[in-house]
Amino acid sequence: MGNLMTSLPLVAKMATDDYVGFTFFVGCMAMMAASAFFFLSMNNFDRKWKTSILVSGLITFIAAVHYWYMRDYWATIGESPTFFRYVDWVLTVPLMCVEFYLILKVAGAKRSLMWRLIFLSVVMLVTGYFGEAVYRDQAWFWGLISGIAYFIIVYEIWFGSAKKLAVEAGGAVLSAHKTLCWFVLVGWAIYPIGYMAGTPGWYEGIFTGLNMDVIYNIGDAINKIGFGLVVYNLAVIATSKVEA
Ligand SMILES: *C/C=C(C)/C=C/C=C(C)/C=C/C1=C(C)CCCC1(C)C
């Protein structure tokens, strides 16, 4: 036992062209730093915004823990950590739906809006997992179902009842809502590209040269940290208005 301990290196070596390993590593650090930032700054705000910043921190913290495992999984096994990836998403994406609800609460958003968005996001992710991990031969089919759920979310926040509430709230809430809508339309669209780069289907060849995990890792950094910063910015603006 003692021999084994001394002969096995404790840290796996990382090749200079291992972009997957590199983005897992940097992603892990970025998520940890963002979590510290959100948690340590949340007490600067009053109760209403504190909860929103707390949720931003929870999103990056849950991701940091999953990135820790995914980085390790990749370093030791050398395969896509699909399971950890989807567990991370199925916890953090519904929390992003909660953020929409929390922001729009000032305009009287109802819980039903939050649950509708959460339900759609879970459908989007579970069907995505089926295509990526369980029924890979029909990846295009499951990706399509997932994409439909994604578009319903996009519709709901851009044009549906969420949009109406944001307009009613106006001011900083409306502009934060708009920015978050862009994150969902453009930032979240990064994921289907990763999916098509990493699963078999008619679309094979379109995204050759792109690595699924690198794309997902870039998407996560933009969406989780960026999304949280938009909410943080809203809290700063709203709080300084009250004080002025
Ligand atoms: C923090 C993690 C986030 C914001 C993850 C978002 C993931 C998606 C928007 C995934 C969407 C997918 C499709 C629209 C179709 C193909 C399958 C998915 C699950 C990759």
UniProtKB/TrEMBL annotation:
Keywords: Chromophore, Membrane, Photoreceptor protein, Receptor, Retinal protein, Sensory transduction, Transmembrane, Transmembrane helix. InterPro entries: Arc/bac/fun_rhodopsins, Proteorhodopsin. The modification N6-(retinylidene)lysine is found at K224. The chain crosses the membrane at residues 20-40, 52-69, 89-107, 114-134, 140-159, 180-203. Pfam families: Bac_rhodopsin (PF01036). GO terms for biological process: phototransduction. It is found in: Membrane. GO terms for cellular component: membrane. It is a multi-pass membrane protein. GO terms for molecular function: light-activated monoatomic ion channel activity; photoreceptor activity. Contains one covalently linked retinal chromophore. It comes from the Bacteria. Belongs to the archaeal/bacterial/fungal opsin family. This is Bacteriorhodopsin.
